[in-house]
Amino acid sequence: MKNKEENNLAFIDGQNLYRGTILTNPRWKVDLLKFRKYLFEKYNIQKAYYFLGFLDENNHNLYDEIQEAGFIIKFREHNSAMIGKKKGNVDSDIIFDVMKRMYQKESFDKIVLVSGDGDYKMLVDFLIKEDKFKKILFPNKYFASSLYKSITRVYFDYLINIKHLIEKK
Fold first, then answer.
1. Residues in CB range of 83: below 8 A, 6 or more apart
2. Burial of 112 (C-beta count, 10 Å sphere; 0-12/13-18/19+)
3. Could you tell me which residues are beta bridge partners of residue 8?
4. What is the pLDDT of residues 78-109, one digit of tens each?
């Protein structure tokens, strides 16, 4: 049961979310407005940060959709010569952002992470130990890193289990 007084934060690996749903069979797409509402109602997420690899002039409609759904967009910094030539890779940005908030003793209760990437495993273990971790939501059962096999079921779920609530029709 959710504590109404909780002030939880969500960190979404945008590329992982997109690829983890669009590359399934059958493919499906997340309705960002429904997903943001779900995060608030289920996990009392007050702020949800949506991390993207880089700013692309051709994606303004996507950025508008993300922001209108209530997410705060964070772009990865790149040297201007490298934009468009490498993958987004926001893992270190998310890890740094979470750790910075903890170091600065920002007022929040727990973290929800949306990704299946194993690069977050050390962060997840640390947050669990510090009683600052709520849940990791895996976009895709098959893309979830095997590194997470050691965490108990209470700390993870699959988006496919809530697809009926958050799917774009």
1. 54, 55, 56
2. buried
3. 45
4. 555 555 544 557 999 999 999 999 999 999 99
Domain that holds residue 64: 8-166
pTM, rounded to two decimals = 0.90
- CA gyration radius for the chain? 15
Query: 51-74: per-residue pLDDT in tens?
Result: 998 777 777 888 999 999 999 999
- Residue 146 belongs to a domain: yes
In a domain, 1, yes or no: no
CATH code for position 23: 3.40.50.1010
In 3D, which of 155, 165, 71 has the Cα closest to residue 110?
155
141 occurs within a structural domain: yes
